[in-house]
Amino acid sequence: MTMLEIRKVSVRFGGLTAVDDVSLAVPEGTIMGIIGPNGAGKTTLFNVVAGILRPRTGSVLLGGEDITRLPAHRRARRGLARTFQRLEVFGTLSVRENLLVAAESRRRWDRSTQPAFVADELCAELGLGEVAESLVDTLPTGTQRLVELGRALALRPRLLLLDEASSGLTELETIQVGERLQRLAGQGLTVVLVEHDMPFVLSTCGRVAMLDHGVLVTEGTPDEVRNNPVVQEAYLGRNREAAA
Ligand SMILES: Nc1ncnc2c1ncn2[C@@H]1O[C@H](COP(=O)(O)OP(=O)(O)OP(=O)(O)O)[C@@H](O)[C@H]1O
């Protein structure tokens, strides 16, 4: 089943076409990475899916339902959760309290949610048990990222959108986040992530899409994308220039 379908989406800012007629289908249980050089349109496309931006044309379907006109906050109850490039956590609350608050918000539309149970389960699942009672502000960035991930997961989403999930993480933490995402995808969660960290994308994602100047240049398995000459030029070519 296709969990997320982006159909012929275009976004313009004045005279600039930031996203140009992009179509993309993400099957359930897939981790899809969106890559591309600076200004390629990744964040813009992400914001269209998250409900922050209305596309000029095209539509977004979640689990087959058209959500193009739903505001961001109404998408959560349809099963969409997101994280932010800048951490969105409550620093003066404990890890467990952060997860409780998020689970409480799910209770607003799903009365069967048991926040305490959800918080404890996520602490265990994300390896946060030992710091459950610590204030989030006192924890390293990597742990705070896991808390943010936990807050998104507390909504029990079908689709998780991650904006630069590996930003600020050590190499080991990045690997651990990648493994956790793969485990969640194995349980059926669909993930779309926007990332600059190519090794993370290539090792974590089942599918990768590359944008350049708002256009979808290619979409395929990490191997297909890694071997695509356009991708190599965009990344390796520019690195070569930078190194020269
Ligand atoms: N609110 C806005 N108003 C005007 N132009 C915008 C706006 N947001 C983005 N743009 C422009 O749209 C284009 C795509 O930007 P976007 O942020 O989506 O790219 P990106 O691939 O996420 O880049 P980066 O990797 O640098 O985050 C860029 O040329 C950007 O300057």
UniProtKB/TrEMBL annotation:
SUPFAM superfamilies: P-loop containing nucleoside triphosphate hydrolases (SSF52540). This is ABC transporter ATP-binding protein. Keywords: ATP-binding, Nucleotide-binding, Transport. Gene3D superfamilies: P-loop containing nucleotide triphosphate hydrolases. GO terms for molecular function: ATP binding; ATP hydrolysis activity. Residues 4-238 form the ABC transporter domain. It comes from the Bacteria. The keyword Metal-binding does not apply. The keyword ATP-binding applies. It comes from Frankia nepalensis. One of its GO terms (cellular component) is plasma membrane.
